[in-house]
Design brief:
By secondary structure, the chain is of the alpha+beta class. The protein has 8 helices and 21 strands. Strand 18 (308-313) and strand 19 (316-340) form a beta hairpin. The model is unreliable at 1-9, 12-18, 48-53, 94-115, 140-170 and 185-213 (pLDDT under 50).
Length: 362
């Protein structure tokens, strides 16, 4: 069924067509501005936008739900920050006129004809380019205009990634973030959760701040054992049949030794990183910790351009540099993690990683 647009919506699209910049807001309040045109670096001229504003306005008018924005990565740091911080990305806004009072509250923007909000997803970056998908948020936009002077209803109602606000039209809404937290209602209304935040299921809560199974790997990830490299997705069956030997390493010294698997964890997640290092790639959930230096682990979503992690090379640990990163925000996958008896570590696609994390782990 074709969409029909109000006059207000049409004016927004017409206004958007003449815009030459895209303002990307982060949940932490930071603003990144991307402009159409060119940048000159060391006598070389780069096109800042390969495709963006023109394609975006055309896609909106054609009712396409998302469009890929591609940029040459003339600012590699920006590109990597966009990719690895995608869970902080909210809206792309065309040439907004008045100051945001809340980075997640489009209802507080007074000049709607100059604004088009959308959710960003699936950022990807390497040494020469970065790109992300701009998800056109038609439903939210329609509700913003219909409720002019109020906010859209909360994410829990509309399922569109827009956070509820202190002026929600839901009579049962606690109205403020403090009220949500006090009543323990933030999960009920969904209004204070990140749209792209990876979700997990039991048996563990995951994350780097507490217990649970922590980060995980997709099933094809190879784990190094005395029997060779085995896909982590096959270790549950081997574990049940008594095959529990694995190679691990001392995180303080890098010394490699034979160890024992104590548990194999399985869960579903939505959203994972594809990290490309000099020594290979790995698909991993955001909180999984990598050995970045002896005695120090860092979660996957902390990596930046040229960061290194320890990787196995001919029975020794070497530094492997990060070359590319992609945040797959739309994909739901079955993932796996291990608990290792002695060192609490193992090798995944030859990368030195921590096992399932508890508060007492290294």
């Amino acid at each position: 069924m074709p969409r029909t647009w109000s006059t207000d919506l049409q004016s927004i699209f017409q206004a958007y067509r003449v815009r030459h910049s895209l303002d990307v807001y982060l949940n932490n309040g930071e603003l990144l501005q991307l402009s159409r045109g060119y940048i000159e670096r060391d006598t070389i001229v780069y096109n800042n936008w390969i495709t963006a504003i023109d394609d975006l306005s055309a896609s909106i008018e054609q009712s396409v739900d998302r469009v890929t924005v591609k940029c040459q990565n003339v600012n590699s740091e920006l590109g990597f920050n966009l990719a690895s911080n995608l869970r902080l990305l909210d809206y792309a806004v065309a040439n907004y006129g008045k100051q945001y009072q809340s980075v997640r509250n489009p209802a507080l923007i007074e000049d709607f004809p100059n604004v088009f909000p959308g959710v960003l997803a699936n950022a990807e970056v390497d040494e020469t380019r970065f790109q992300f998908e701009f998800v056109v948020d038609y439903e939210s936009l329609g509700n913003i205009i219909a409720l002019r002077g109020m906010s859209p209803k909360c994410w829990w109602t509309y399922k569109n990634g827009i956070e509820c606000t202190s002026t929600s039209s839901l009579t049962t809404c606690p109205k403020t973030r403090a009220g949500c937290i006090e009543r323990g209602a933030e999960k009920d209304f969904g209004g204070w959760e990140f749209f792209e935040e990876p979700t997990s299921s039991q048996p563990g809560t995951g994350g780097n701040q507490g217990g649970g199974i922590g980060g995980c790997f997709l099933g094809e990830t190879l784990v190094w054992t005395p029997d060779g490299e085995i896909p982590i997705g096959e270790l549950s069956h081997r574990f049940a049949n008594g095959k529990r030997s694995i190679w691990s390493f001392d995180p303080a010294t890098g010394e490699i030794s034979e160890d024992e698997i104590e548990a194999v964890w399985v869960q579903q997640i939505t959203g994972f990183f594809t990290l490309g290092f000099e020594s290979g790639k790995v698909n991993v959930s955001a909180p999984h910790r990598f050995l970045t230096d002896f005695g120090r682990f860092s979660p996957a979503d902390d990596f930046r351009r040229n960061d290194t992690t320890k990787a196995l090379d001919d029975l020794r640990l070497i530094d492997s540099k990060l070359l590319s990163i992609k945040w797959n925000s739309d994909k739901t996958e079955t993932v796996f993690n291990l608990r290792v008896k002695k060192n609490r570590t193992y090798f995944a696609n030859k990368f030195a990683v921590s096992n399932s994390k508890t508060p007492n782990d290294f």
